[in-house]
């Protein structure tokens, strides 16, 4: 039973860590492409800025959803009862 809880903590840490890593890389690449395109065509800067902030929100939303799921598994593991039943058999 203790092993299952430790694996859940490990999985939650991986979900949070890899999600944060991916979100940071994605926003970094998007920001660099925004600056590059704004330097090439400054007249499109306002339009590009709107799209960049929309995409930044979507990238962050995906990470926040993963964070919520990881914390849900870490605090209230729904599979723990099923695993306890299997271990009792």
Automatic annotation (TrEMBL):
Q: Could you say which residues are annotated as the site Reversibly protonated during proton transport?
A: 60
Q: Where are the transmembrane segments?
A: 6-31, 52-74
User: Which SUPFAM superfamilies does this chain map to?
Assistant: F1F0 ATP synthase subunit C
Write out the annotated subcellular location: Cell membrane; Membrane
Q: Which UniProt keywords apply?
A: ATP synthesis, Cell membrane, CF(0), Hydrogen ion transport, Ion transport, Lipid-binding, Membrane, Transmembrane, Transmembrane helix, Transport
What membrane topology is annotated for this entry?
A: Multi-pass membrane protein
Signal sequence, start to end = none
Q: Does the keyword Iron-sulfur apply?
A: no
Q: Which intervals hold domain V-ATPase proteolipid subunit C-like?
A: 10-72
Q: Name one Pfam family in it.
A: ATP-synt_C
Keyword Repressor appears in the UniProt entry: no
HAMAP family recorded: ATP_synth_c_bact
Question: Of which family is this protein a member?
Answer: Belongs to the ATPase C chain family.
Q: Which NCBIfam families match?
A: ATP_synt_c, PRK06876.1
Q: What does this protein do?
A: F(1)F(0) ATP synthase produces ATP from ADP in the presence of a proton or sodium gradient. F-type ATPases consist of two structural domains, F(1) containing the extramembraneous catalytic core and F(0) containing the membrane proton channel, linked together by a central stalk and a peripheral stalk. During catalysis, ATP synthesis in the catalytic domain of F(1) is coupled via a rotary mechanism of the central stalk subunits to proton translocation.
Official protein name in the record: ATP synthase subunit c
Native source organism of the sequence: Roseateles paludis
